[in-house]
Amino acid sequence: MAVTEPAPAAAPVAFEGILRRQSARESAARTYARALPIVPVRARGLTIEGADGRRYLDCLSGAGTLALGHNHPVVLEAIRKVLDSGAPLHVLDLATPVKDTFTTELFRTLPPRLADRARIQFCGPAGTDAVEAALKLVRTATGRSDVLAFTGAYHGMTAGALDASGGATGVRVARLPYPQDYRCPFGIGGTRGAELAARWTENLLDDPKSGVPGPAGMILEPVQGEGGVIPAPDDWLRRMREITAARSIPLIADEVQTGVGRTGTFWAVEHSGITPDVMVLSKAIGGSLPLAVVVYRDDLDAWGPGAHAGTFRGNQLAMAAGAATLSYVRENRLAERAAVLGARMLGQLQGLAAEYACVGDVRGRGLMIGLELVDPAAEAPTSPGPPPAAPELAADVQRECLRRGLIVELGGRHSSVVRLLPPLTLTDEQASAVLDRLADALAAAVHRHHLD
């Protein structure tokens, strides 16, 4: 099957002027626009066409939002159906047939032990809104205030909205070590490193002098995305479930980026077999449109009417697109496909690690893949652990990828991890094209940095 591309645009757009006006008008906080100076005008599947007429293979996928790629036919049909029906598009949290269909499809995909007792809260449009709601939920349900989180975590950008509204009581966060092999916080990695991370957590909770009172909840990512594509070991996740359950601490799984088949199971927690008390969901569940929800165990449903709201929590187009996406991923077994194709891509990328010393680590799960780039020349002979991160090299690889028509993201502690988040509809031929362009870009960047 050929790489799917959109038809040529009818006429070129003066993209230089658009970019110039964006730079002059938009805030200094803009991010993707700086590293990816393109003006998308058309898109289909894996491919984006820029206003300059160039085509790009998109392995950013809206930061993981586009499970089916751009403008998938089932998504477009679902949106058109709602538009043509004359149904209201804005209904706050009122019940609608579209909402009922979405909720039914979502519950069909949840881990069974959660689905049997689940409640759902529709939040404002972004994943960070759902995280805020989840934290508020467990604090209300437990009567406690502190939260346990992990180093390297990313749960969103909001801060201060409740304080500005006069309603916050303040949330203290205790940071725990997140296990990983390549840069293990204990310097040993593997099973032993994960075990020490679990023991650290137990000791923090059980030591009366730790300075950490009983928490309202623990929030974690089954795979840290922005933290550098770091999959949590399954045994460690099971330990976190055991530790929290034994101490009546609600466990919140942030599946905003890992959900809907991305990691090779429909939800990433399924790899370990655990059932969290709360799941935070967004990105792909909206089928490319803004939608965020919290799904949680019914005995936590202790908040009153209006305890958490949001004007745009009833996005009917997003629910229709989301239901179509969830159904398509489930019926076409795209999670299983992501597991197989992702493992194959990881294996091929290991060849780059063998060829280039600057590729310190290749890791991921399913179609959530990362390459950590390092500076091997900066490693002292007696220095323990891996070489230091190479963010400038990673940025150069990203630029070289763009020159070759490949869009990738950077992440990790020092923005030194090249990330691939292709759509779950990726074909074998498209995967080969992505890896070929990435390999060429890496070779060019390595040569420029005199690392070959």
UniProtKB/TrEMBL annotation:
The gene is dat_1. Belongs to the class-III pyridoxal-phosphate-dependent aminotransferase family. The keyword Hydrolase does not apply. The keyword Transport does not apply. Its cofactor is pyridoxal 5'-phosphate. GO terms for molecular function: diaminobutyrate-2-oxoglutarate transaminase activity; pyridoxal phosphate binding. It comes from Streptomyces jeddahensis. This is Diaminobutyrate--2-oxoglutarate transaminase. PROSITE patterns: AA_TRANSFER_CLASS_3. It is an enzyme of class 2 (transferase). NCBIfam families: dat (TIGR00709). Its EC number is 2.6.1.76. Pathway: Amine and polyamine biosynthesis; ectoine biosynthesis; L-ectoine from L-aspartate 4-semialdehyde: step 1/3. It holds the Pfam family Aminotran_3. The lineage of its organism: Bacteria, Bacillati, Actinomycetota, Actinomycetes, Kitasatosporales. InterPro entries: Aminotrans_3, Aminotrans_3_PPA_site, Dat, PyrdxlP-dep_Trfase, PyrdxlP-dep_Trfase_major, PyrdxlP-dep_Trfase_small. Keywords: Aminotransferase, Pyridoxal phosphate, Transferase.
